[in-house]
Design brief:
alpha/beta; 355 residues; 12 helices; single chain; 7-stranded parallel β-sheet
Length: 355
Amino acid sequence: MARMKKVLVTGGAGFIGSNFIHYCLDRRPDLSIINLDALTYAGNMENLSLCSCDRRYRFIHGDIRDRELVQSVFAEYDPDAVIHFAAETHVDRSIEDPDVFVTTNVLGTQILLDAAKTAWKKHPKDHRCRQYRKGVRFIHISTDEVYGSLDGEGTFSEESPLLPNSPYAASKAGADLLVRSYFRTFGFPAVITRCSNNYGPYQFPEKLIPLMVRNAQQDLPLPVYGDGMQVRDWLHVSDHCEAVMAVWENGRLGEVYNIGGGFEKTNLEIVQIILDTLGKPASLIRHIADRPGHDRRYAMDYGKISKELGWQPAHTVEDGLKETVLWYVDNPDWLERVVSGQYRSYYARMYRGME
């Protein structure tokens, strides 16, 4: 019988991480999952309640910035792969508090890289050793925001320069460069993925889609930054999970793979689809002051992953978004339980003055 592969998923209680864990446990009986998550405001154990009885799943409460803890996880569980989702991700929060984005996204990634390098090297005490245990891989999950903003036509390719415009994007770009440097300097078996805007179940309600669904259901104002004409490439989270799995299993080491949904929509168009799905009026929309450094347009060229690995998004944004809205409608208790007092005070700060 083949040995079960052990996968360390960081940030597995968050939106994309929890969806990836569900994907693995539902479709891959040959995998066992170790979930390392600090359970910050966006980490929610309810996302994984259906996994708790699965003998292939283990949860560890801990911070990737804790070097001693991370090293102990590698020593105890000896994972074959790291799928690194853990990150501070919300642009607005990075404007309020850049420090935690730098320490989590940059320092935390470096600590993980060091622990994996030491655990996987064939000769751990040899600093020049570039040989690693067969089959091990470190998949670093990044974002299209590291590329900055597109003006007019065109798309981001893997060769586009990194021009981040927010502290969040800058911290992710820094982490990307660290991962690249470990591949170049140490021969470390890493791959970087950069995805466009994800949507789907279990997303924390500070993000556009669940925020608008919740407010619309309660006939509350829907806060839209500026004119709402910021364009994003929308990717269903299940399509993202498929892409990450393809990169983990068959992607070339040291490479970057863009993952896009192939569907560009303005924020205002997304909000209108939500309102139409819920049967709510456009009069609920409230335009508020734009946030500082708000990128105007993102669009991803995912031709590389399509050509090399045969991946294509399965969802159209219209069908996927309606499915997502109905998930939130069908899970109101989940949505309300994750909206803590901390989130309510944050919401008041971000959208102050909105009547």
